[in-house]
Amino acid sequence: MSQDRVRVRGLTIHRPIIYGNTATLLTPAERELLPSPDHTHRWTVAVRSAASDDEGTRVGGKDDLSYFIKRVTFKLHETYTNSTRNIDKPPFEVTETGWGEFEIQIRIHFIPESGEKAILLYHHLKLHPWSATGTDSDVPPPPDVAAALGPVHSWQYDEIVFFDPFQQFLNTLTAHPPTPLPKTRRRPVPFHTANPASLAESRGGVPEFWAGMEKDEVERLERARKKVIAEQETWRTKLIEKEKELERLKRELGES
To answer: What dotted CATH number matches 3-211?
Structure first.
């Protein structure tokens, strides 16, 4: 057996990626030019490297991932013509127009030398800045407000981990180290509906993943945890007070 087809046991190597979408509200003039004038947004769903280029024109995508990714298959909503899109070269993305949000299946196929099975990811297409008001409302903002807020970004960071890789594949990966994420925040962070505060931060710019995001996310979750605990304690105190009041009323009724 060729040494290239021997697995390097006990070794793991990973590659950071992001997947998600950017959506822009169409103007009335743009909608008139579409075959389906009911479409309200133009969106792009993509799989990219986590690091962004210095131009700041898009989220991620500085590195060419085709050295280990052979194909990305995007499964769109069945109402789209040719709803299964196979992208065999970078950029691994699909751009469409539409009016509704739906779940997109993203299947990543690796180069044959990897000997790895394809992986399946899921992304819910985001078109509307649902948290534009900082509330939990399920109603998107009016078109003029959405247009002023700019493009909607919904991206997920992930790391593809390869266990016991073939030597040849390991050689390929090590020959293409990923660009490190910036250590400091250069642009607004990516946001999603669970983090409405960062929506305002993203106005007028393209978000970027950076090395400190994990720490920020941990701190945000810790703040949320403390808030939940405080709310639980508040309602626990109210419940105890109501139970005491109920017992008092029962005693009064029994004595009357």
So the answer is: 2.60.40.1970
